[in-house]
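Case study 2.
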Amino acid sequence: MIDIREILVRIFSAIFLSMCTGSCMFVFWMALRKIFADRIYPKVYDVILKIILIAYYVPAGYLLVNIFFDNGYVFDFTGTIINVFYAIALFWLAGAIATVLKFGERTFRIRREKERCFPCKMYVQKIFEDCKRELGIRRSIEVLQGYRIQIPMTAGMLKPCVFLPVEDMEEEQLKTCIYHELTHYKKHDIFWNYIACLMVCIHWYCPWIRTVFRKNDEWSEVICDLSTIGYVGSAKRYFTTIFEMSQKSQGIKAYRAVCLFESQDSLEQRIYYAMMYRKQKKIKYAAVIAMTVIFCGMSVTSTLAAGKGYQKAYTKWVQETEVEIEEPDDEEEERISYEEKTGVLGNDKSERIKKINLKKFKKMNTMTFKNQIKNGKRLSFSRKARFRKQNENIELTIGSQKKCKYIKAGIMDSQNKVRYIQDRGTDLIRYQFRIKEGGKYDVFIEMEGMKKMKISGMRTMLLNSCTTIMEGTARP
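Prediction:
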């Protein structure tokens, strides 16, 4: 049966870890861009930035923790932890809905404007088709004009449409605007705009997520500018057209549309980058390789560090909030009788129990542990069994959240001869093994018939007895 609480913990852990990975990669990108500056072609910066957008979706940190760093505690939950995650879920959902509504309103605003627009004049249609042919675009793209459209823009991913102002423009100005908007379409900037919007909706709580969104817009415009200047033939004429259009831009601003002009600051930055990179005569491949290697190495390291740090912090959180099970008094407990069985074990499926020693138990010679036991596998405490004297007792207490008939637990000597009991389908097993002959004995646990089960417990070595308390969570 699926536990919705565990799914909740895993989902928000994955969201948080993907945010950590993407944010670290973005910080590295910012630092490397300042270090390498114009020694690298801007398209490389843009490609890496697109990879960072994807990193905010890919739960690499979560997969790393789940596969390699799972110590039995991580992604487990206690009452305190699940209450915190319920609060996080409500808080995140409220912010996500507000962000979606904000982007949605601007998307519907574009659709309303499209309904008010009308087809362009024939000579504008002809120039538009000529520009499409020159850029190698074969898909049918609608071009419209509207009185409320004051700057050229492109919107629509499934049905792309270019919006132009109604005012008459010179042919060179018109070509410049059309080249720019069609270059956005050719570079799939509308698609990446949707990806960036969804990223903000998921990670709205991150303080710098809108900076990532803004940088994606800026570098999309930079790459578009450099490509369009190649078709226009003059950077001065190209930016003169944009500046003239910017003086009239009092129209709509939609995040799900790519525009010729957005703000005065962004225009100044675009001119700076265009002039800087147009002077670049030769691509320095050594710098590209060095930046790629450094970026990949730092990204992998940060993902590993984030995953390991989350595992340690979450493990400590579980240990500090879990409730210890108190053993009932012998007089009040109703004992269940078990049939003690004997046998000889092979050596082909043993796995060692991971020890998780707590400081407060060191003086008591107590070991705590938490493990996953897989189907057909056996867990034992250590390879070096403890020497126990005759008539001493080893008591096993195993608790499970679900009734499970697949647990086999007992003791084994140095010759692999065992005495064990089989779970009878109850949620609590308690049994004492009396040592009949002095020697080295170890505790073992086996499970067959289920995919895996989480067990946790504590072993205390006493003068006349050895007590082991285990609790498990069955996972079909």
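The radius of gyration is 33 Å.
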